[in-house]
Amino acid sequence: MSYRTTRRKFLQRIAAAGAALPVFMSSRAEAQDKHPDLRVAFIGTGGMGGAHVGEMGNLGVSCPCFCDVDTDNQSQAKRMYPKATAYQDYRRMFDKEAKNIDAVMIGVPDHSHFPATIIAMQLGIHVYTQKPLTQTVWEARMLRRAAERYKVVTQMGNQGHAGEDWRRLYEIIHAGGIGDVKEVHTWTDRPIWPQGIGRPEGSDPVPPNLDWDVWLGPAPVRPFKQGVYHPFAWRGWWDFGAGALGDMACHTMDGMFWSLDPGYPAAVEPVVINNKTAETFPNSSIIRWEFPAKGDRPGFVQYWYDGGLKPDRPADLEQGRELPPTGNLFVGTKGTLIIAGDYGSGITTIPEPLINDIGDPPKLLERSPGHYLEWVLACKGDGKTWSNFGYAAPMTETILLGNVAVHVGERIEWDGEKLEITNLPDANQYINKEYREGWKVWA
Question: What are the sequence ranges of the domains in the chain?
Fold first, then answer.
């Protein structure tokens, strides 16, 4: 598959996702007054950054400034907020505009999530950061601590966390609908970008619309190559992205984290790694987490599959039923849940009649007014965010341990309290990364 075809399909998916966003919005959101008294800045105004601009435009917030390293990506923001000041370097934007900003939305490549987010928090600015919250395990732990320290409103961009479906899963699990959960299997249709490749030779001229040095941010310097990293395929590179796992697990594994509250894993193991290189994530992988018992919940294992791999078809799955393209299996002592898609929709059971017995469990969780609206309201002191960093950072940290295990290529045993791999000391180098001079911007 060519890069052009891959990117086109990805953009089609983004468009479809944007069209589907009202699914997460309640009638309250549709009737809600505009919010011009909230001043929101944007770091990243193309791709998901563009979705941020559109959503905030719908909610009527003010925008004093925005930033994108590629001026070609700024057109939507300029059109919606013609009086806002445009920047290409978010550090300069914060230096000049901090006093004019109440909240910021960050939609840039993974490797720049942490420095942009921590600067905002240190300035007392509320933050919304796209998933995965960070690129490394250490960064996630630091943002969890920063949220406790700076007391700003925080939210990660996993939209399904505001929806009804993951709440229903939580309530089914807590009502004992399938008994004790023994295994969870999660799979995705990613990657839809190149992986399993080496770094290309040579360089191309940097286009005049792009600040390549700022795009690289904290990552090591490398030559610009047209279409290889920016604007899309960065997700597959160790230096810039977090692979298929980082891209989708904060969506598709959200239900497991919410309903089972796993805590720290005891160990993480790469079961399958196909065609990993020193530069990029593998073409496909299977990863296994082992979670110990916690309170009344027994221990269980979590599996992740990407690159076209899926769990084995359950032997007792009725003839003619197939596993969905993306989704989850929750295997319990009383039965199995099949969950389609990335946001917990389409819950069915094995055996199929069990879904009728489960019915509608008691509602244990407050409902959200909508993923973006809840953040806006929380920034104004009205309500809370559900995927705040107190929840999202530990989830991201645990997910990204899977990438550490893939990088090492061996089972790692984890001491979560000490933030340390205990069985392979050399593997601790992958818990974080080196930051380029000028980009280590936190205390």
Answer: 3-161+373-388, 164-365+389-443
Domain 3-161+373-388, CATH homologous superfamily name and number: NAD(P)-binding Rossmann-like Domain (3.40.50.720)
The token duo for 109 is 């490549």
Task: Render pLDDT for 430-441 as a digit per residue (tens, 0 to 9).
Answer: 999 999 998 987
Q: 84 with 108: CB under 8 angstroms? A: no
Q: What is the pLDDT of residue 443?
A: 54
**Dihedral through CA 294, CA 296, CA 301, CA 305, nearest 10?**
-100
How far apart are alpha carbons 167 and 319 in whole angstroms?
A: 29
* CATH class, 164-365+389-443 region: alpha beta
Task: Name the pTM for this structure.
Answer: 0.92
pLDDT tens figures, 261-285:
999 999 999 999 999 999 999 999 9
How far apart CA 223 and CA 216 sit, in angstroms, is 10
Tell whether omega for the bond before 361 is within 30 degrees of 0, i.e. cis: no
The pLDDT tens digits for 16-64 are 333 333 333 333 444 357 999 999 999 999 999 999 999 999 999 999 9
Helix axes 389-408, 137-150, angle to 10 degrees: 160
Decide whether 3-161+373-388 matches 164-365+389-443 in CATH topology: no
88: Cβ contacts below 8 Å, ≥ 6 apart: 67, 68, 69, 70, 71, 211, 214
